[in-house]
Each structure stands twice: as structure tokens, then as C-alpha cells.
């Protein structure tokens, strides 16, 4: 079985398509396996009336705000004690990316991270203050803020600790926990530069403090460069108001940059010539290197990717030799647009290009795909398959190997780990999170 | 970024105009990401998407906005008092340090009353709560070069306030704004100075060459003089007029931050791993205590129990403190502890629970209705007989 078909070979194979299907239907007609009406038991799901087919359904007056089918209840955010303050108020609940589809996360599944619990802000009492080194300071109500001309953009938000528990080795046999500290949405709001057109920034304004109104008064310092580029104040998430977990009614969005910088329940923006040194840019969200120095102001989430299907959660245990299956995954870069993803079946020793699919947008989740024929015992040359993906972006970056990344960053940095992720498939089709390291 | 940039940063306008016009010549093609802004690299090492032909990357923009925005002022000017009420941040140079004072001694008493239940004796931490001290900050700073990269079984670095934080202003500001965690913004200025003094003390930080002792009283002037052990522990420089350019220079070199650049045509496709690289598996079960437990089947959720979900509410909102005595709460299952609580009559118990008492936040921090809260109290008592 050749698992490393080039695109060219695949095209050639396509031409054989009609010939093969023709042959197949002849066999099928000749044999009895596919058409016999007696060989197998009839499927009761087809043979019987189903309850929902006979009884009245719900009136339209029910669930005025729709909710998922009750059968989908396992598709939820999850948390683990290890990543929680004792009372789950300075904690994270992560997104089930093994169930994700396309490049949008439904609002109810968007990962939830807060430092003093999820605040519930009364929109009528909401105020945003912009002051400091601006010619005209301003206070805005929510209604006034939303009167500014809006833009709508699709961007992921990623906690820079995504994968951060695994610097010293794999820990989570789960793609939800290994890579699900991120989600993606279509955001609506206003560019801060649009508001500043009138307020007027003073020339020595180099930094902006963004502060939340929640219990922890989350604050972060943002360089003015980002503010004048694509920084947004957003109130819309996938066509509706932000969810409380996402900072309702208003959060900061710095496309591509650390989720923590995208301050939620935003109440205040102050411009100054010197940076602030908030708790979350000193005590945490700083990346300690082997030299003993830590990187502060680590902004963009670097180019990254993972296989999402198969996963430890939804493995290949129902597949057998010869089955044809789509391998899917996500790629993303906070530094630009994904330009390509390579896939490996030997843990990242050799690669073939995978296909990007759907929309490819800047600083956004990008979906990739590869059609694969399952080999015997999930082995190649007597070795279990180890799936790996490696993404590139238009800023010129490519994911480093685990060895390359740790050679520079050591293993104590917690944040910004984007080394190549690897997933072993066992002889029975189970999927294990592993790492290839020296 | 260019419309505003042109207006504000005069020297930038020429370069910006060039970027716009050269973009136009490429016709209707989608504008590409650029890695330099006005001749300088971007501040984060990535690309940005200039507006060219009314598009930024794949997105159309309305060109009227940049013109009309100059006239939009939808709000009002904040009053002086409003600014004072919200502009309460502290900066390391002393900006924002309020007048006031507090002693280590007072700080210790406040700590024992309001902080110890989470942060432990002398700030030792535990149970998911961060440690505030682990000993002498100057000594522990030396552990920051510990890296379990080559020596997996060695000690890691100790990152607590005394050994790791660069600025004391951060501590004061955070305590004032964010602590105590269940009811932040309740400490006075003097109390915050006292708690800051106490945390400096347990980290054995020095003031003018002398360790901060029990007698020490912290105030604005003194706080300005304290330099923490790891003041110089962070890169790149962000201070002063060169701050942003220093950051820019840092992210211009991928080697500084563990990133990798490659010409796509030359990327490795074969023999990419170190010959020594081998498959590393999760040690033991790894971290696998997921809540709710991992499951992917499509089934109907199990129905709520007959006690109206009291058990579920307990697990979600109370168990974190009432499962054992570590938070100073009567533990569920401890008949004696609950007998002592209920001895004063159930009305008083409900009242204390709903309004909060000592370490018990109002309704345990939950948003249960009074009736539901009471049913959870009843449930907890029923489990403690």
C-alpha cells in the first residue's frame, strides 16, 4: 500500500475511477453480497416507524433561543483540576476540537478562560473610557460604541499556554486538551484606529493599557503599532452578542496575538509613553529561557497545526486495511496566513503536502485535508503510523520540530509552544499522543 | 494601519504612500502580507495586510470610513472625578502610587484573616492556589536557570513573587484590584500597603540593603526605592523611547523566540528528524482526569436526580470548599462539624450562607436562587449525618 501518493498520482488514479466503478458494479451484480435481501437482518431503524416520525414535534414557541440536540451533550468544553485554581474562578475550560467542523467554533463551545470568574456585565451600565495621551479623551456607552462603523473579521483566539503542559513530554491523550486552548469566530466590532481618527493620538503615545471590569480587573499593555494596525473592540461573535465567557458586552481583539491580551469585559484604554507591567505580563505570560531570562511582551501565536481527525477521542478503531478515509486537521498562525501544510506518517521524518480546504484567511484557523488508504495493522514498513502535520505561513515561518524548539527555548517556558504534534496509530486503530524527541 | 499612521506619524507618510501606490499597480490581485511597516520590521515578527484597492487581505473595506471617522465623536469627555475613579493603575516609576502606609505586622494580621485560606501559611500556596513566597527571593532567583531540558529529574525554576516578578508596583496594583479573590476591591490603600509589606517580608526582600523585617512600614516613597531581585530578568527591553524598536529588533530574529523561518521550496521533506529522536509516550496515565469525563457517543443525558439537582449544584458550586476542611469550611460528611453549625438553628444557617460569613462567600459565589441554595444546604447536611 502506497501511503505517500503525490497529488499527481492521485490525479492519475482519478482517471481510473470510471473503469473501476464499472468493474465493481459488475462484481456486485454477479455476486450476492451487496444486493441479496436475505443475507443480512433488516435494519430496524428503517423497518419501523420512528417515534419522532409519528408524534407531534415541538411547537415553534419552544426554545426561542435554540439549543443543540440533547444527543449532542457530550460535545462540551471540558476542564481538568490540574489547570484550575481551587475554585474554578482562575481557570480554563477547553474546546472539543476533535468535534470541530470548518473554521468556526460555535459560541457555546468557545474556550473559556478567566482570572476571577466569568463576569456578568449589565449592558446598560457598560462604559468604555479612552484616555491618556489622546487629544480628546472619551467615555462611550455601549450604544454609542456600536454607532461607529463596524468591520467583521474571522480570527482564532488562542491561549498562549495551548500545548504548554507538554514541553517536557506528552501529557494529554486527547486533542481537546493537547490543542484545544483555542477557538475561532467571526468577530464584529470597530477598529480602534477608526475611533482614534477623531480622538487623535499624541506623538509620544507608545503603549496602550487595556483593562477589564471583571473581578480581577485584567490588564495588559499593548504596543501602539498593533492598535494602529488591526486591533479591534468587538461586541459581535458569530452574528450575535459576545457570550459572557468571551467578555460580554465588549472585548479587545488583537488578531493573532495571545488570547490573554484580548482583554474581556473591557472598560478602559489608556495611552502612555511607558509600559505598565501588569500581573499577567510579568508573573505569567512570560516565557523563561535556559539563560534564566524570560521573554516578556511575547505577542503573536506562532504558526501551528494539528491533526484533529483521527484523534484519541475519535480513533480509527472502526477502520480496516483498504478503507479510504479523510485525515483532517487545523492550521493557524498569528503572524499571517497559512500557505501550506505537510503531513507525515512516520512522526515527521518525511513529509508529503496535504491540501488546504475552504477559506484561507489571515490569522484564522485553516482547515487541511489528506485522503488516505488504511494500511494493514496501521503499519508502514513494519512500524506503526505516526501522524504529524507541519504548517507554514506567509510571514515565512514553519513549525519547528520538538527538538529544534526546545534547543532554543528549553522546557520551562510554559507559553508559545508550536513544535510539531505527533499522533501514533496502534495496530487496533487507537490514537495516542506521542512526541518525537532526542 | 496606514491611514491613521500617515496622519499621526509624519515621517511615516512618505513610505506609507509608496506602499499604497505600489500596491495599486498590481491591479486587483489580493493584497499580500507585508513584513515591514514604513521600512521597519513589524513589531511581532509577522506580516500585516495594508489596505490596497479598498481591500485588506481578502476583506473589502469601505474607503469612506477613514475620511469620515475624523469627524465621529460619539461619546462625551469624562469628568475629572470619573477619570480619578477609573485611572487607578500603578506604573513602576511611581505614577499612580497613592499616599498611605502599612506595616508588615498589620499585613500579617490581614493575611491571616483574608488570604491564608487560599495562599497557605506564609504564602506557601497549594490546592491550586499560587504560592506568594518560597523563601529568600535573591537565592531563589538563581533557580531561574534550572531547566529540565537536559536533566529531566533535576529541580525546575521557582517562579514566585520574590524570585521572578520584576516590579513591586505590580504586586500593590494587583492586590488592590484583584484580591482577595472572592471579593476584590475591598481593601483600603493602607491595607494594601500592609499586605504588600508582608509579602515583601516573607520573600526576604531588602530595602536599602537591609532585609524588610516585622517593624517595617511601607509607604509610597519607600516602594519607589525597592528594586526586586529579578528586575533585569526580562527580554526584550520595553522601557524608554527605544522600547518598541527594541521589541521589533527582538522579533526580527526567529532564533530569539524559538521560531523557524524557511524558504518553502527548501523545506525538509525527507530525513527531517535527528537520528537520535525517538517516540516518547505519555508517562503513566498522564493527565486524564477530565471534567466531564471524555465521551463522544450520541446519547440522551442521564436525567436529573430526584433532589432537584441539589447534588449537581453542590458539585459545581460548593464541593471545591466543602469537600474537606482545607478552606476552613465544615466538610460534607463531617457530622460533628455540621451539628455545630446547625445548633444555632436553620434560619441562621441559611442566613449566613446566603449573605456570606468569614471565608464563606455569599451563596458560595453561586447564582442559585434562595430556594435552590437552601436545598443545597439541606442536601449537604443530609450527607453529613
Main attributes?
heterodimer, A: 438 residues, alpha+beta, Sulfite Oxidase, Chain A, domain 2, Immunoglobulin-like, 5-stranded mixed β-sheet, 5-stranded antiparallel β-sheet, 9 helices, 29% strand, disordered N terminus, B: 385 residues, mainly alpha, Cytochrome Bc1 Complex, Chain D, domain 2, 3-stranded antiparallel β-sheet, two-stranded antiparallel sheet, 16 helices, 7% strand, globular
What does this structure look like?
The complex is a heterodimer of chains A (438) and B (385). By secondary structure, chain A is an alpha+beta fold. Chain A folds into three domains: 7-53, no CATH class; 81-285, Oxidoreductase, molybdopterin-binding domain (Sulfite Oxidase, Chain A, domain 2), CATH 3.90.420; 304-434, Immunoglobulin-like (Sandwich), CATH 2.60.40.650. Chain A is built from nine helices and 26 strands. Chain A has helices at 7-15, 17-30, 44-47, 51-54, 142-145, 175-179, 192-199, 224-228, 402-409; strands at 79-80, 91-93, 112-114, 127-132, 138-141, 151-158, 182-191, 207-212, 219-223, 232-237, 240-241, 251-253, 266-272, 287-288, 294-295, 304-309, 324-332, 338-344, 352-353, 355-357, 366-373, 379-380, 383-384, 386-393, 422-425, 431-437. Chain A is globular, with a radius of gyration of 25 Å. In chain A, 57% of the residues are buried. Chain B is mainly alpha-helical. Chain B folds into three domains: 6-86; 101-225, Cytochrome c-like domain (Cytochrome Bc1 Complex, Chain D, domain 2, Orthogonal Bundle), CATH 1.10.760.10; 304-382, Cytochrome c-like domain (Cytochrome Bc1 Complex, Chain D, domain 2), CATH 1.10.760. Chain B is 36% helix and 7% strand. Chain B is built from 16 helices and twelve strands. In chain B, strands 3-4-5 form a three-stranded antiparallel sheet. In chain B, strands 1-2 form a two-stranded antiparallel ribbon. In chain B, a hairpin with a 2-residue loop joins β7 and β8 (210-211). The relative contact order of chain B is 0.08. β26 (431-437) of chain A pairs antiparallel with β11 of chain B, so a sheet runs across the interface.
